[in-house]
Amino acid sequence: MLEKEIRFNVTAALSEDLGGTLDASRDITAQLLPETERVVAHLITREAGVFCGQAFAQETFRQLGDDVKLTWHVKDGDAVSANQRLLTLTGPARAIMTGERTALNFIQTLSGVATVTQRYVERLAGTHCRLLDTRKTLPGLRLALKYAVTCGGGLNHRLGLYDAYLIKENHIFACGGIDKAISEARRLQPARTVEVEVESLNELEQALAAGADIIMLDNFSVQDMQSAVKLSAGRVKLEVSGDVTLETISEFAATGVDFISVGALTKHVQALDLSLRVAE
């Protein structure tokens, strides 16, 4: 699925630059360069982080004619340091100039997600708690960003609305209660995981009685998280959501919950600072 998505994402990105086509001659600035000019260029990172996006860069230059040789010095998931060389490109100057921004956009965005994910994961050390992403992603880049989360050491929550139930407040209200919502989910899709979001310990008890697989504790206090762990007594997986930051996640994890989900991983994306330099 990811390979297909990579082709789709790269085609869309190149089309934005090339007037709705994949015709590299539409890059009028690159046409200033002699057609036979060949160059060597190096991609470096200006800051430390976690690298991600190799396949997206490969696909970028493949779609531009596959005449550029990419020599990688890192792989997805590798920790990188400031001023480290990531990639060497050798080939036609026009193709390298045309594909440069598209390739860097993918790498810097995905590396940024992988980097911040690792920072959150590091704060879970010493607990059994695992970090989850959410569906709060940049439009059109769902699978790409979720892949980047895994490169940073996180886990993927459901990919979309089709692969698992997440019964939230409005669903519960419309169904007539937690027990009725879970019962209907079991009837319609018995093989699917059923997760229920609760906002109080009372709702937690209802979800436990109804047989939820996972219960999301929405904006619980630390004290209530601890109580939820005791009440569930290992009968169900518990996930914490809401008010999760690098400053709070360690305390939340220490309560004994199984998962913590963080929308900021893929919503508040800060790109890794990269630079492509043509060798003299």
Q: Strand order of the main beta sheet, please?
A: 6-11-10-9-8-7
Low-confidence stretches: none
* Helix share bin: 40-55%
Structural class: alpha/beta
Family: Belongs to the NadC/ModD family.
Protein name: Probable nicotinate-nucleotide pyrophosphorylase [carboxylating]
Pfam families: QRPTase_C (PF01729), QRPTase_N (PF02749)
InterPro entries: Aldolase_TIM, NadC, NadC/ModD, Nicotinate_pribotase-like_C, Quinolinate_PRibosylTase_N_sf, Quinolinate_PRibosylTrfase_C, Quinolinate_PRibosylTrfase_N
Task: Provide a descriptive summary of the structure in words.
The strands form 3 sheets. A 6-stranded parallel beta sheet has the order 6-11-10-9-8-7. Strand 8 (194-198), helix 7 and strand 9 form a beta-alpha-beta unit. 41% of the residues lie in helices and 19% in strands. It is an alpha/beta fold and 280 residues long. It is elongated and about 70 Å long. It has 2 domains: 2-117 and 269-278, Quinolinate phosphoribosyl transferase, N-terminal domain (Aldehyde Oxidoreductase, domain 3, Alpha-Beta Complex); 122-267, Aldolase class I (TIM Barrel), CATH 3.20.20. The protein contains 10 helices and 12 strands. Helix 3 (93-122) packs across helix 4 (142-151), helix 6 runs parallel beside helix 7 and helix 7 packs parallel to helix 8 (222-232). Involved in the catabolism of quinolinic acid (QA). This is Probable nicotinate-nucleotide pyrophosphorylase [carboxylating]. Hexamer formed by 3 homodimers.
